[in-house]
């Protein structure tokens, strides 16, 4: 039985030939992404923006009437309520933004919750209220700040790790690749106004981990090739290293997409943002490992001389012993 090979052996694709136009395109996409974040903003969920969440189950229905519930909640005066299936098909999560006068006022928040529950029970006698939560604007602001600090800390820690394991140029390259991946993910959420919640922070951390893994595989091969072919021109060496790891990179990405694409197309609405972020992250993470992390090493002046093996103390003693034996 022959093994499935998505990439033939001994590929020789000249990736680095197009490094300048791809870098320019990536910088434009990064700038556009941050422009969207600054102008349109992110559609923060209740976790980050503050608000009220009510969870309900329609006990006599196979599926929750999401569109009908959205109309009924909007009729109460709440703009853009977020109605998502939650857990079972007949369960929903209803999230609304609290008005400014209800911030920090438990009584006002409880009154809003009672209005929503009353509307549900009036229109759906079979409904069961499973619970409700209120997140104040101050607490949600702290969540948002801590989440972005977590992303920044993860990126910096990863760059320091790569710096220690390889050379400082590799750390800079990895940090730029991660910044590229996170920026494009944020840009997608700003462009399509998908809900940005704690789930998405988890997705971005997963993207950082995937991109890091892919980048380290490429960097490790580059380091090995730099030791073996110290006189080879760096662009040719980088092309060779990327081609040597290409089969592994494509197979890993394809395996993940086989599991994620059906979830993206047929999964519950509550997981759409999470899945979309990870799917995008797989594409941009694979792209950045080839066209962001590798070419930057040329401009940062990496050379094979940085990886000349140093002579250990034991090797030095053995060499001196051999030299002593050869003397008259």
From TrEMBL:
**GO aspect biological process, one term:** protein transport by the Sec complex
Protein name listed in UniProt: Protein-export membrane protein SecF
Q: Which residues does the UniProt record annotate as the domain Protein export membrane protein SecD/SecF C-terminal?
A: 121-301
Q: Where found?
A: Cell membrane
Q: Which gene encodes it?
A: secF
Q: Which organism is it from?
A: Novosphingobium mathurense
Q: Which NCBIfam families does its entry note?
A: 2A0604s01, transloc_SecF
Its quaternary organisation is: Forms a complex with SecD. Part of the essential Sec protein translocation apparatus which comprises SecA, SecYEG and auxiliary proteins SecDF-YajC and YidC.
User: What are the TM regions of this chain, as residue ranges?
Assistant: 20-37, 146-164, 170-191, 198-219, 246-266, 278-302
Q: Which function does this protein serve?
A: Part of the Sec protein translocase complex. Interacts with the SecYEG preprotein conducting channel. SecDF uses the proton motive force (PMF) to complete protein translocation after the ATP-dependent function of SecA.
Stated family: Belongs to the SecD/SecF family. SecF subfamily.
Record keywords: Cell membrane, Membrane, Protein transport, Translocation, Transmembrane, Transmembrane helix, Transport
